[in-house]
Design brief:
With 461 residues, the chain is an alpha+beta fold. It contains 11 helices and 14 strands. The chain folds into 2 domains: 180 residues, no CATH class; 183 residues, no CATH class.
Protein backbone atom coordinates (compact mmCIF):
# COMPACT_ATOMS: atom_id res chain seq x y z
CA UNK A 1 0.00 0.00 0.00
CA UNK A 2 2.80 2.43 0.93
CA UNK A 3 4.67 1.58 -2.25
CA UNK A 4 1.63 2.30 -4.37
CA UNK A 5 1.19 5.73 -2.79
CA UNK A 6 4.85 6.45 -3.50
CA UNK A 7 4.15 5.85 -7.15
CA UNK A 8 6.12 2.63 -7.74
CA UNK A 9 5.32 1.02 -11.07
CA UNK A 10 4.66 -2.49 -9.76
CA UNK A 11 1.09 -3.55 -9.11
CA UNK A 12 0.86 -4.89 -5.56
CA UNK A 13 -2.87 -5.59 -5.70
CA UNK A 14 -4.75 -6.02 -8.97
CA UNK A 15 -7.49 -3.43 -9.19
CA UNK A 16 -11.00 -4.86 -9.33
CA UNK A 17 -12.71 -1.58 -10.11
CA UNK A 18 -13.42 -1.67 -13.86
CA UNK A 19 -9.76 -1.84 -14.96
CA UNK A 20 -8.76 -0.72 -18.48
CA UNK A 21 -8.77 -3.22 -21.32
CA UNK A 22 -4.97 -3.04 -21.15
CA UNK A 23 -4.10 -2.74 -17.45
CA UNK A 24 -0.34 -2.90 -18.03
CA UNK A 25 0.38 0.56 -19.46
CA UNK A 26 3.54 2.04 -17.95
CA UNK A 27 3.71 5.69 -16.97
CA UNK A 28 7.23 7.08 -16.64
CA UNK A 29 6.92 10.85 -17.01
CA UNK A 30 4.18 13.24 -18.07
CA UNK A 31 3.43 16.93 -18.35
CA UNK A 32 0.11 16.24 -16.59
CA UNK A 33 -0.38 15.94 -12.84
CA UNK A 34 -0.22 12.35 -11.62
CA UNK A 35 -3.04 11.26 -9.32
CA UNK A 36 -2.69 8.12 -7.22
CA UNK A 37 -5.77 6.75 -5.48
CA UNK A 38 -5.47 3.81 -3.12
CA UNK A 39 -8.64 1.95 -2.09
CA UNK A 40 -6.64 -1.09 -0.95
CA UNK A 41 -8.59 -3.35 -3.29
CA UNK A 42 -12.04 -2.33 -2.02
CA UNK A 43 -14.93 -2.03 -4.47
CA UNK A 44 -15.80 1.53 -5.40
CA UNK A 45 -19.55 2.00 -5.20
CA UNK A 46 -21.97 4.33 -6.92
CA UNK A 47 -24.55 4.77 -4.17
CA UNK A 48 -22.23 5.49 -1.24
CA UNK A 49 -18.69 6.68 -0.63
CA UNK A 50 -15.80 4.58 0.57
CA UNK A 51 -12.64 5.72 2.30
CA UNK A 52 -9.52 6.11 0.16
CA UNK A 53 -6.15 7.83 0.10
CA UNK A 54 -5.09 10.21 -2.67
CA UNK A 55 -1.76 11.70 -3.65
CA UNK A 56 -1.17 14.23 -6.43
CA UNK A 57 2.24 15.13 -7.82
CA UNK A 58 2.44 18.26 -9.95
CA UNK A 59 5.70 20.13 -10.44
CA UNK A 60 4.15 23.07 -12.26
CA UNK A 61 3.49 24.38 -15.75
CA UNK A 62 6.12 23.30 -18.26
CA UNK A 63 7.74 20.76 -15.95
CA UNK A 64 7.58 16.98 -16.06
CA UNK A 65 6.08 14.81 -13.35
CA UNK A 66 7.58 11.39 -12.65
CA UNK A 67 5.75 8.29 -11.47
CA UNK A 68 8.87 6.82 -9.88
CA UNK A 69 9.25 8.99 -6.82
CA UNK A 70 12.26 7.05 -5.56
CA UNK A 71 14.41 7.85 -8.59
CA UNK A 72 12.92 11.36 -8.72
CA UNK A 73 12.64 12.59 -5.11
CA UNK A 74 11.72 16.11 -4.11
CA UNK A 75 8.79 16.49 -6.47
CA UNK A 76 5.97 18.84 -5.48
CA UNK A 77 3.12 17.09 -3.69
CA UNK A 78 0.02 19.07 -4.58
CA UNK A 79 -2.17 17.01 -2.24
CA UNK A 80 -1.74 14.00 -0.02
CA UNK A 81 -4.53 12.89 2.25
CA UNK A 82 -7.83 11.11 2.72
CA UNK A 83 -10.85 11.21 0.46
CA UNK A 84 -14.38 9.80 0.40
CA UNK A 85 -14.80 8.25 -3.04
CA UNK A 86 -17.65 6.96 -5.18
CA UNK A 87 -18.55 6.53 -8.83
CA UNK A 88 -20.59 9.32 -10.44
CA UNK A 89 -22.50 9.96 -13.68
CA UNK A 90 -25.50 8.60 -15.57
CA UNK A 91 -24.66 7.66 -19.17
CA UNK A 92 -20.97 8.28 -18.44
CA UNK A 93 -21.24 5.52 -15.85
CA UNK A 94 -23.79 3.17 -17.40
CA UNK A 95 -22.54 3.24 -20.99
CA UNK A 96 -18.79 3.63 -20.53
CA UNK A 97 -16.25 1.08 -19.28
CA UNK A 98 -14.07 3.97 -18.08
CA UNK A 99 -15.91 5.19 -15.00
CA UNK A 100 -15.93 8.73 -13.56
CA UNK A 101 -15.57 9.47 -9.86
CA UNK A 102 -16.78 11.91 -7.26
CA UNK A 103 -14.73 12.54 -4.16
CA UNK A 104 -14.67 14.64 -1.02
CA UNK A 105 -11.39 15.71 0.56
CA UNK A 106 -11.28 14.78 4.25
CA UNK A 107 -9.49 15.92 7.40
CA UNK A 108 -9.26 12.35 8.73
CA UNK A 109 -9.92 8.80 7.51
CA UNK A 110 -13.53 7.72 7.18
CA UNK A 111 -14.78 5.73 10.16
CA UNK A 112 -17.95 3.66 9.81
CA UNK A 113 -19.05 5.87 6.94
CA UNK A 114 -18.53 9.07 8.91
CA UNK A 115 -16.04 11.65 7.69
CA UNK A 116 -15.03 15.23 8.44
CA UNK A 117 -14.72 17.16 5.19
CA UNK A 118 -11.77 19.46 4.55
CA UNK A 119 -11.58 22.28 2.02
CA UNK A 120 -8.35 22.18 0.02
CA UNK A 121 -6.94 23.70 -3.15
CA UNK A 122 -6.20 21.16 -5.89
CA UNK A 123 -4.01 22.04 -8.90
CA UNK A 124 -4.40 25.73 -8.19
CA UNK A 125 -8.18 25.63 -8.09
CA UNK A 126 -9.83 27.47 -5.18
CA UNK A 127 -10.44 25.63 -1.92
CA UNK A 128 -13.39 23.28 -1.66
CA UNK A 129 -14.09 19.72 -0.57
CA UNK A 130 -16.30 18.54 -3.44
CA UNK A 131 -14.54 17.35 -6.60
CA UNK A 132 -14.95 15.15 -9.67
CA UNK A 133 -12.68 13.01 -11.80
CA UNK A 134 -14.35 13.09 -15.20
CA UNK A 135 -13.52 10.15 -17.45
CA UNK A 136 -13.48 11.12 -21.15
CA UNK A 137 -14.28 7.94 -23.08
CA UNK A 138 -17.14 8.56 -25.50
CA UNK A 139 -15.41 11.87 -26.19
CA UNK A 140 -12.31 10.64 -28.01
CA UNK A 141 -11.01 14.20 -28.35
CA UNK A 142 -11.11 14.40 -24.53
CA UNK A 143 -11.63 18.16 -24.81
CA UNK A 144 -15.37 18.72 -25.21
CA UNK A 145 -16.13 19.49 -21.55
CA UNK A 146 -13.17 21.83 -21.13
CA UNK A 147 -13.85 23.47 -24.49
CA UNK A 148 -17.40 24.30 -23.43
CA UNK A 149 -16.15 25.63 -20.10
CA UNK A 150 -13.56 27.87 -21.77
CA UNK A 151 -16.08 29.26 -24.25
CA UNK A 152 -18.56 30.18 -21.52
CA UNK A 153 -16.14 31.31 -18.81
CA UNK A 154 -15.92 35.00 -19.86
CA UNK A 155 -19.69 35.34 -19.91
CA UNK A 156 -21.30 33.36 -17.09
CA UNK A 157 -21.25 34.03 -13.37
CA UNK A 158 -19.76 30.63 -12.56
CA UNK A 159 -18.19 28.01 -14.81
CA UNK A 160 -16.33 25.00 -13.36
CA UNK A 161 -12.56 24.78 -13.72
CA UNK A 162 -10.86 21.53 -14.62
CA UNK A 163 -7.37 20.17 -15.32
CA UNK A 164 -6.15 17.07 -17.11
CA UNK A 165 -4.35 14.45 -15.05
CA UNK A 166 -3.30 10.81 -15.33
CA UNK A 167 -4.78 8.40 -12.81
CA UNK A 168 -3.23 5.38 -11.14
CA UNK A 169 -5.74 3.40 -9.06
CA UNK A 170 -4.38 0.69 -6.74
CA UNK A 171 -1.25 0.51 -8.87
CA UNK A 172 -3.00 0.22 -12.25
CA UNK A 173 -2.80 2.96 -14.87
CA UNK A 174 -6.35 4.13 -15.65
CA UNK A 175 -5.61 6.83 -18.22
CA UNK A 176 -6.34 10.52 -18.69
CA UNK A 177 -9.00 12.08 -16.47
CA UNK A 178 -10.18 15.63 -15.80
CA UNK A 179 -9.89 16.69 -12.18
CA UNK A 180 -12.72 19.18 -12.01
CA UNK A 181 -14.74 21.43 -9.82
CA UNK A 182 -18.42 20.60 -9.78
CA UNK A 183 -21.36 22.98 -9.91
CA UNK A 184 -22.01 23.22 -6.19
CA UNK A 185 -22.49 25.63 -3.35
CA UNK A 186 -19.18 26.97 -2.05
CA UNK A 187 -17.38 30.20 -1.30
CA UNK A 188 -15.44 30.05 -4.57
CA UNK A 189 -18.14 28.35 -6.65
CA UNK A 190 -21.79 29.26 -6.40
CA UNK A 191 -21.43 31.49 -3.38
CA UNK A 192 -24.90 30.76 -2.07
CA UNK A 193 -25.84 31.27 1.54
CA UNK A 194 -27.81 28.28 2.75
CA UNK A 195 -31.38 28.85 3.89
CA UNK A 196 -31.03 29.11 7.66
CA UNK A 197 -34.59 29.78 8.79
CA UNK A 198 -38.18 28.90 8.05
CA UNK A 199 -39.31 32.45 7.36
CA UNK A 200 -38.08 35.81 6.18
CA UNK A 201 -35.20 36.48 3.79
CA UNK A 202 -33.12 33.66 5.28
CA UNK A 203 -35.66 31.21 3.86
CA UNK A 204 -35.40 32.50 0.28
CA UNK A 205 -31.92 31.26 -0.59
CA UNK A 206 -29.79 29.82 -1.69
CA UNK A 207 -30.94 26.76 -3.61
CA UNK A 208 -29.40 24.69 -6.39
CA UNK A 209 -31.86 22.66 -8.47
CA UNK A 210 -31.43 20.49 -11.53
CA UNK A 211 -33.62 19.34 -14.40
CA UNK A 212 -32.61 15.70 -14.68
CA UNK A 213 -33.68 12.06 -14.67
CA UNK A 214 -35.33 10.15 -11.83
CA UNK A 215 -32.25 8.59 -10.22
CA UNK A 216 -32.71 10.74 -7.12
CA UNK A 217 -35.53 12.31 -5.11
CA UNK A 218 -37.44 14.35 -7.66
CA UNK A 219 -40.34 16.74 -7.98
CA UNK A 220 -42.51 16.63 -11.10
CA UNK A 221 -43.18 19.88 -12.94
CA UNK A 222 -46.80 20.97 -13.19
CA UNK A 223 -46.21 21.72 -16.87
CA UNK A 224 -45.66 19.15 -19.61
CA UNK A 225 -42.93 19.56 -22.23
CA UNK A 226 -44.22 20.73 -25.62
CA UNK A 227 -43.64 19.89 -29.26
CA UNK A 228 -42.27 22.25 -31.92
CA UNK A 229 -45.70 23.91 -32.20
CA UNK A 230 -46.11 24.43 -28.46
CA UNK A 231 -48.58 21.56 -27.98
CA UNK A 232 -48.00 19.68 -24.68
CA UNK A 233 -47.00 16.03 -24.55
CA UNK A 234 -49.49 14.91 -21.91
CA UNK A 235 -47.68 11.62 -21.27
CA UNK A 236 -44.26 13.20 -20.62
CA UNK A 237 -43.05 15.07 -17.56
CA UNK A 238 -40.09 17.19 -16.48
CA UNK A 239 -38.37 16.27 -13.22
CA UNK A 240 -36.47 18.44 -10.75
CA UNK A 241 -33.74 17.25 -8.39
CA UNK A 242 -32.74 19.30 -5.35
CA UNK A 243 -28.95 19.46 -5.12
CA UNK A 244 -28.30 22.04 -2.40
CA UNK A 245 -29.56 21.83 0.19
CA UNK A 246 -30.24 18.13 -0.20
CA UNK A 247 -33.99 17.53 -0.24
CA UNK A 248 -33.84 15.32 2.85
CA UNK A 249 -31.89 17.98 4.74
CA UNK A 250 -34.36 20.79 4.07
CA UNK A 251 -37.06 21.69 6.55
CA UNK A 252 -40.69 21.41 5.50
CA UNK A 253 -40.85 25.20 5.12
CA UNK A 254 -37.76 25.24 2.91
CA UNK A 255 -39.08 22.46 0.69
CA UNK A 256 -42.39 24.28 0.38
CA UNK A 257 -40.64 27.54 -0.45
CA UNK A 258 -38.39 26.31 -3.27
CA UNK A 259 -41.08 24.10 -4.80
CA UNK A 260 -43.54 26.99 -4.74
CA UNK A 261 -40.94 29.33 -6.22
CA UNK A 262 -40.33 26.95 -9.14
CA UNK A 263 -44.10 26.69 -9.63
CA UNK A 264 -44.33 30.48 -9.71
CA UNK A 265 -41.52 30.70 -12.26
CA UNK A 266 -43.15 28.13 -14.52
CA UNK A 267 -46.53 29.84 -14.23
CA UNK A 268 -44.83 33.09 -15.23
CA UNK A 269 -43.40 31.37 -18.31
CA UNK A 270 -46.85 30.10 -19.18
CA UNK A 271 -48.32 33.60 -18.92
CA UNK A 272 -45.40 35.38 -20.60
CA UNK A 273 -44.31 37.39 -17.55
CA UNK A 274 -41.13 35.55 -16.70
CA UNK A 275 -38.60 38.43 -16.40
CA UNK A 276 -39.07 38.91 -12.66
CA UNK A 277 -38.27 35.24 -12.02
CA UNK A 278 -35.20 34.61 -14.21
CA UNK A 279 -31.93 36.33 -15.04
CA UNK A 280 -32.58 36.46 -18.77
CA UNK A 281 -28.93 36.90 -19.75
CA UNK A 282 -27.78 33.75 -17.93
CA UNK A 283 -30.53 31.82 -19.73
CA UNK A 284 -29.21 33.24 -23.01
CA UNK A 285 -25.63 32.30 -22.15
CA UNK A 286 -26.78 28.81 -21.20
CA UNK A 287 -28.67 28.51 -24.48
CA UNK A 288 -25.63 29.58 -26.51
CA UNK A 289 -23.54 26.90 -24.77
CA UNK A 290 -26.15 24.22 -25.47
CA UNK A 291 -26.87 25.27 -29.04
CA UNK A 292 -23.29 25.89 -30.17
CA UNK A 293 -22.43 22.37 -29.00
CA UNK A 294 -25.77 20.92 -30.21
CA UNK A 295 -25.83 19.10 -26.89
CA UNK A 296 -28.39 16.28 -27.10
CA UNK A 297 -28.57 16.26 -23.29
CA UNK A 298 -28.92 20.04 -23.15
CA UNK A 299 -31.78 21.66 -21.21
CA UNK A 300 -33.29 18.31 -20.17
CA UNK A 301 -30.44 16.59 -18.25
CA UNK A 302 -27.93 18.21 -15.90
CA UNK A 303 -29.96 21.41 -16.38
CA UNK A 304 -28.67 23.28 -13.34
CA UNK A 305 -30.32 26.45 -12.06
CA UNK A 306 -29.95 28.27 -8.76
CA UNK A 307 -31.36 31.08 -6.66
CA UNK A 308 -29.81 33.42 -4.12
CA UNK A 309 -31.60 35.10 -1.25
CA UNK A 310 -34.13 37.70 -2.32
CA UNK A 311 -32.06 40.51 -0.78
CA UNK A 312 -29.23 39.65 -3.23
CA UNK A 313 -31.17 38.60 -6.33
CA UNK A 314 -34.61 36.92 -6.42
CA UNK A 315 -34.16 35.51 -9.94
CA UNK A 316 -33.13 32.01 -11.04
CA UNK A 317 -29.84 31.71 -12.93
CA UNK A 318 -28.35 28.90 -15.04
CA UNK A 319 -25.06 27.02 -14.84
CA UNK A 320 -23.52 24.68 -17.44
CA UNK A 321 -22.31 21.07 -17.12
CA UNK A 322 -21.87 17.86 -19.13
CA UNK A 323 -20.71 18.13 -22.77
CA UNK A 324 -19.00 14.78 -23.40
CA UNK A 325 -21.45 13.72 -26.12
CA UNK A 326 -21.97 17.24 -27.50
CA UNK A 327 -20.33 18.93 -30.51
CA UNK A 328 -21.60 16.35 -33.00
CA UNK A 329 -20.51 13.37 -30.91
CA UNK A 330 -23.86 11.56 -30.70
CA UNK A 331 -25.42 9.25 -33.27
CA UNK A 332 -28.82 9.39 -31.54
CA UNK A 333 -31.42 12.16 -31.11
CA UNK A 334 -29.91 13.70 -34.28
CA UNK A 335 -27.00 14.89 -32.17
CA UNK A 336 -24.57 14.85 -35.11
CA UNK A 337 -26.44 17.53 -37.05
CA UNK A 338 -25.29 21.12 -37.47
CA UNK A 339 -28.55 22.54 -38.85
CA UNK A 340 -31.20 22.22 -36.11
CA UNK A 341 -31.96 23.79 -32.75
CA UNK A 342 -31.59 21.48 -29.75
CA UNK A 343 -34.28 23.38 -27.82
CA UNK A 344 -36.70 22.16 -30.51
CA UNK A 345 -35.58 18.54 -30.17
CA UNK A 346 -38.61 17.25 -28.28
CA UNK A 347 -40.26 15.82 -31.40
CA UNK A 348 -37.14 13.74 -32.06
CA UNK A 349 -36.85 12.72 -28.40
CA UNK A 350 -40.52 11.70 -28.31
CA UNK A 351 -40.22 9.73 -31.54
CA UNK A 352 -37.22 7.87 -30.13
CA UNK A 353 -39.18 7.14 -26.92
CA UNK A 354 -36.96 9.15 -24.60
CA UNK A 355 -38.62 9.95 -21.27
CA UNK A 356 -36.66 13.15 -20.62
CA UNK A 357 -37.72 16.09 -22.74
CA UNK A 358 -36.81 19.78 -22.86
CA UNK A 359 -38.87 21.97 -20.44
CA UNK A 360 -41.48 24.16 -22.10
CA UNK A 361 -39.62 27.29 -20.93
CA UNK A 362 -37.32 27.21 -23.92
CA UNK A 363 -40.21 27.17 -26.39
CA UNK A 364 -41.68 30.23 -24.63
CA UNK A 365 -38.38 32.12 -24.61
CA UNK A 366 -37.55 31.46 -28.24
CA UNK A 367 -40.96 32.59 -29.37
CA UNK A 368 -40.63 35.90 -27.52
CA UNK A 369 -39.29 38.65 -29.85
CA UNK A 370 -37.70 40.50 -26.91
CA UNK A 371 -35.74 37.41 -25.86
CA UNK A 372 -34.66 36.50 -29.39
CA UNK A 373 -33.47 40.08 -29.99
CA UNK A 374 -31.25 39.82 -26.90
CA UNK A 375 -30.08 36.38 -28.01
CA UNK A 376 -28.95 37.77 -31.37
CA UNK A 377 -27.10 40.62 -29.67
CA UNK A 378 -25.35 38.25 -27.29
CA UNK A 379 -24.38 35.88 -30.10
CA UNK A 380 -22.75 38.79 -31.92
CA UNK A 381 -20.77 39.62 -28.77
CA UNK A 382 -19.52 36.04 -28.55
CA UNK A 383 -18.66 35.92 -32.25
CA UNK A 384 -16.67 39.15 -32.06
CA UNK A 385 -14.56 37.85 -29.16
CA UNK A 386 -13.79 34.27 -28.15
CA UNK A 387 -15.98 32.67 -30.84
CA UNK A 388 -14.13 33.73 -33.92
CA UNK A 389 -13.11 30.63 -35.84
CA UNK A 390 -9.43 31.46 -35.34
CA UNK A 391 -9.84 31.87 -31.58
CA UNK A 392 -11.92 28.71 -31.33
CA UNK A 393 -9.31 26.70 -33.24
CA UNK A 394 -6.59 28.13 -31.00
CA UNK A 395 -8.49 26.95 -27.91
CA UNK A 396 -8.93 23.47 -29.39
CA UNK A 397 -5.27 23.28 -30.41
CA UNK A 398 -4.12 24.35 -26.95
CA UNK A 399 -6.20 21.69 -25.21
CA UNK A 400 -5.16 19.01 -27.69
CA UNK A 401 -1.48 19.92 -27.46
CA UNK A 402 -1.58 19.46 -23.70
CA UNK A 403 -2.63 15.85 -24.26
CA UNK A 404 -0.30 15.12 -27.18
CA UNK A 405 2.95 16.80 -26.20
CA UNK A 406 4.25 14.18 -23.74
CA UNK A 407 2.26 11.13 -24.77
CA UNK A 408 -0.76 11.25 -22.47
CA UNK A 409 -3.22 10.62 -25.31
CA UNK A 410 -1.09 7.69 -26.53
CA UNK A 411 -0.97 6.09 -23.08
CA UNK A 412 -4.71 6.57 -22.66
CA UNK A 413 -5.30 4.93 -26.05
CA UNK A 414 -3.13 1.99 -25.01
CA UNK A 415 -5.22 1.53 -21.87
CA UNK A 416 -8.53 2.10 -23.66
CA UNK A 417 -8.13 1.21 -27.38
CA UNK A 418 -10.66 3.22 -29.36
CA UNK A 419 -9.38 4.37 -32.77
CA UNK A 420 -11.12 3.05 -35.86
CA UNK A 421 -14.02 1.57 -33.92
CA UNK A 422 -17.34 2.87 -32.68
CA UNK A 423 -17.66 3.82 -29.04
CA UNK A 424 -21.17 4.68 -27.83
CA UNK A 425 -22.59 7.03 -29.01
CA UNK A 426 -20.06 8.21 -31.63
CA UNK A 427 -21.44 9.28 -35.00
CA UNK A 428 -18.03 9.90 -36.55
CA UNK A 429 -15.46 7.13 -36.14
CA UNK A 430 -11.99 8.68 -36.20
CA UNK A 431 -8.93 6.75 -37.30
CA UNK A 432 -6.60 8.58 -34.89
CA UNK A 433 -6.43 11.62 -32.61
CA UNK A 434 -5.61 14.11 -35.37
CA UNK A 435 -8.58 12.87 -37.37
CA UNK A 436 -10.86 13.37 -34.36
CA UNK A 437 -9.63 16.93 -33.75
CA UNK A 438 -9.93 17.87 -37.43
CA UNK A 439 -13.47 16.51 -37.55
CA UNK A 440 -14.42 18.51 -34.45
CA UNK A 441 -13.05 21.70 -35.98
CA UNK A 442 -14.92 21.16 -39.26
CA UNK A 443 -18.14 20.34 -37.41
CA UNK A 444 -17.85 23.62 -35.48
CA UNK A 445 -17.25 25.63 -38.65
CA UNK A 446 -20.48 24.27 -40.10
CA UNK A 447 -22.40 24.74 -36.86
CA UNK A 448 -21.28 28.34 -36.44
CA UNK A 449 -22.15 29.17 -40.06
CA UNK A 450 -25.68 27.81 -39.56
CA UNK A 451 -26.17 29.69 -36.27
CA UNK A 452 -24.81 32.91 -37.85
CA UNK A 453 -27.52 32.66 -40.49
CA UNK A 454 -30.30 31.92 -38.00
CA UNK A 455 -29.22 34.69 -35.63
CA UNK A 456 -28.57 37.19 -38.42
CA UNK A 457 -24.90 37.71 -37.65
CA UNK A 458 -22.63 39.17 -40.29
CA UNK A 459 -18.92 38.60 -39.62
CA UNK A 460 -16.89 41.81 -39.54
CA UNK A 461 -14.17 40.35 -41.78
Amino acid sequence: MIAMMLGLGSCIKRARNFPPKNPYVHLDSTNLPIVWIDVDGDSIKRDKRIGAHMKIIYNGEGKLNYADTITHPGQHIDYQGYIALRHRGNSTYNDSPKKPYSFRTLADPMWRGIAKKKRVSLLGMPKDNNWALLAPYADKSMIRDLLAFEISRPWMEYVPEGHYCELILDGTYYGVYILSEVVSRGRYRLNLEEPTANSGDDLTGGYLVEVDCDDDITRTSKYNPVNANGVPYKDKHVLFQFKSPDYEEMTRAQRHYIINRIDMMEKAFATGNYEQFIDVMTFIDYQIAMELSHNVDGYRLSGKFYKRRDCEDPRFKMAIWDFNIAYGNADHREGWRTDTWIYQNNDVLYREQDNYLVPFWWYILNNDPNYTALLKQRWAQYRNSNLTVDQLNATIDSLAQTLVSHGAISRNSEAWPCWGKRVWPNHYIATDYNDEINHLKQWLVERIAWMDKQLEYQPEN
